[in-house]
Structure prediction request, 149 residues.
Amino acid sequence: MLNYRLQTENDTDAFCQKLLPLLESPCVIYLHGDLGAGKTTLSQYLIRAAGHKGPVKSPTYTLFEEYQTPHGHFYHFDLYRLKDAEELIFIGIEDIAKEKAIFLIEWPEQGAEYLPNADLAVYIKLAQTDRELSIESTSEKGSKLLEQL
Ligand code: ADP
Ligand code: MG
Prediction:
């Protein structure tokens, strides 16, 4: 487990620029943290670090957004509004999960067993004046990656 202090969004950006080159598809990252912790912001900086030029919208209402970037295909999920984990079946999660992509998943606890297993888990906690980010590996691939971070 590695820990970082994020005082501003610039720190989130710097963290994402370090992490991005280590990510190889397929890779699944669960993003944990309360509303407002900074999960979407981190996803935005990662997708931009991958070379995406346009906007990165919060997928709160659409469940997911897709991006084709110079660093590969990204799926950004936000499951906050998912009412029933089975809804994931209807949006085709089984096929999506087989794709060679980088998956960023906010509120993964809402998706339960229908989600692909994570390689990395990120936890962001809002502290008094700044944010604490922890990242841990949850697969062999993830632990090799963390060794290089
Ligand atoms: P979440 O997706 O976890 O609900 P967001 O990424 O939407 O949270 O962020 C909520 C707010 O916090 C946004 O206004 C965002 O600009 C701000 N924020 C996110 N990360 C940071 C950071 N590292 N430093 C300062 N503000 C941040
Ligand atoms: Mg969010």
